[in-house]
Amino acid sequence: MGYTLEAVIAGAALIREATVDLPRAQRFGLSQGLALVPLTDALHDSRPLGERPFREFHLLPAWLSRWATEWSRGGPLAYVEIDSFGGTMAQAAAVWEHGELTLGPLRVGADEPAPAEGFPLSKALRRLGVTVGPHDQDEFTAVGLGAHRHTEDWAEHACD
Q1: Which residues in 53-84 are b (16+ Cβ under 10 Å) and which e?
Q2: Distance (Å, rounded) from C-alpha 75 to C-alpha 10?
Q3: pTM of the prediction?
Q4: Taking a C-beta distance cutoff of 8 angstroms, is the pair 76, 130 a contact?
Q5: What is the CA angle 116-82-14, rounded to 5?
Q6: Which helix H or strand E contains 34, and what residues bound it?
Q7: Runs of H (alpha helix) within 73-128
Q8: 157: helix, strand or coil
Q9: If 0-12 CB within 10 Å is exposed, 13-18 middle and 19+ buried, where does residue 140 land?
Q10: Does residue 10 register a pLDDT over 80?
């Protein structure tokens, strides 16, 4: 069974404020005070794609990179892409803080070994302040990213 996710993750208050001007954005609360905005087809279709600003990402549109830069002035904000199927996984992540890209973009392809310092998603979540508790396997499980298996599934269960 596969897992795909394309999303923005940040503090819940920042996500609420930052998505006011994105009427197609849907929010989903995560653990540790974070929230996720899945980049659904509807959200992609609501904005012009433009050039892809980073080769490490397959789906990050230019408008989202500019949006993340602007809204990161209010707190750290991460963009993540995960694609896992049949025991292989590719991940990419970046974090913006204080109006600047401060982590990444990082990418680990499906045919690459796990980095000793952790996968891009884990590094990004740590930058957002996520801690791993005694019952968590890693940052992914610590915030509840296993709740849904596909980007569009997150939108179906979005809050407010």
Answers
A1: bbebbeebbebbbebbbebbebbbbbbbbbbb
A2: 8
A3: 0.86
A4: no
A5: 100
A6: strand 34-38
A7: 120-127
A8: coil
A9: buried
A10: yes
Distance CA 30, CA 68 (A): 19
Cα gap 160→151, rounded to integer Å: 17
E-strand stretches of 41-121: 77-85, 88-97, 100-108
Provide the residue count of the chain: 160
Residues 6+ apart with CB under 8 A from 134: none
Give the closest residue to 58 by CA, choosing from 127, 23, 105, 119: 105
- CB of 83 within 8 A of CB of 4? yes
- pLDDT per residue as tens digits for the range 114-136: 788 888 989 999 999 999 888 87
pLDDT band at 19 (very low <50, low <70, confident <90, very high): confident
